[in-house]
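Retro notes - structure team

What went well: the batch runner handled both jobs without manual restarts.
What didn't: labels got mixed up in the shared folder, which is why I'm recording both outputs here explicitly, each with its sequence directly above its tokens.

Job 1
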Amino acid sequence: MSQRSVLAASVSTRAVRRWAWATLVANTVIILTGGLVRLTGSGLGCPTWPRCTDASYVPHQELGLHGVIEFGNRLLTYVLVAVVVGTAVAVWRWSGTSRGLRRLVVGIGLGIPFQAVIGGITVLTDLNPWVVALHLVLSMYLVALSVWLVVRVHPRAGVAASAGVQRLVRVVYGVAWVAVYLGTVVTGSGPHAGDEDSPRNGLSPETWSHVHAASVYLLVALTLALWWSTRSGALRRPVLVLLGVELAQGVVGLVQFWTGLPIVLVALHLVGAAALVAAATWVVLAARGGSSEGATGETRSADQPVPA
């Protein structure tokens, strides 16, 4: 037995799947904690980067609770790094691994330090709303990659959707990303700047809230059309999940708009945006027919490795 086989055999399929899910959860949680930093006005709790202050990497008493909150979010980046490193090791040592799967994990891993740098730039630019938006969109992209990883280590036999359905799926996915980005534009014009002295993007919150809402209405309509086209196929479940997330997001968005953007609802809406990206990514992958590491049309048990 080769050295690669010995190492690969030491990690089960179940363990790899758990690590993949941990990567998805960790990338979602850090979106929530980053949002809470902004929502509590702690965005400049550590006024510089990579240090917390010019003289220290950790907050001091004068920075108060805001410094603790901002520094705590920075520390969570190291937790995310640890999770992704653990996932990478598991994937490398899994007998069902492949070059594509390893590249996917490396891509997720490289996105984290890049994300940290963008986060640093947000601090150095006093929470410029356009940079903050880029910071969030990159986090959403890492969520999408994490969903891809989860799906790839859960191979399922399936038949690819028709060309027409796949085109509709791509349109739905594109509109979902547009809706998410427009949400960041609305946020950049609203009251939750992250610090009382941080700039806003100068756009009308009411106008752009309506623009964002219009993109959501379009997304729901397209998803309903997709559901109608796939009512009896393998896409039915992921499309229904996506539709459910969209409707829940719409309700939360409307309520938070009518109630003056309370912190709890804004935080829930932020997590919902991550769930929207995750569900939409699942639909795209399901439309390709099966998922993953070379599914060949046969069903495999939870602990049976997939050939590389």
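Job 2
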Amino acid sequence: MQKFTNGMPANLVPGEWVKSRKSEANGTCVEAVKLPQGRVALRNSTDPSGPALVFTAAEVDAFLDGAKNGEFDRFATVNW
């Protein structure tokens, strides 16, 4: 099994990277790819070979729950 670590070049992480449809027009977004054991890697779409951040399934679940509950809305630069 391949070892995935924080900071590894994102272009070395296999799989289909996914980004929000909202960002497709301008090409700037965070992209995600699913890894084994429910982990997820994230990268900057403008730097696809830059560093990947790797999160456990529990970390991803906690972040998504917070995002769904509006806990990170203060970081948005666009008022919805």
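One thing worth noting from job 2: The CA atoms of residues 65 and 71 lie 9 Å apart.
We'll revisit the folder naming next retro.
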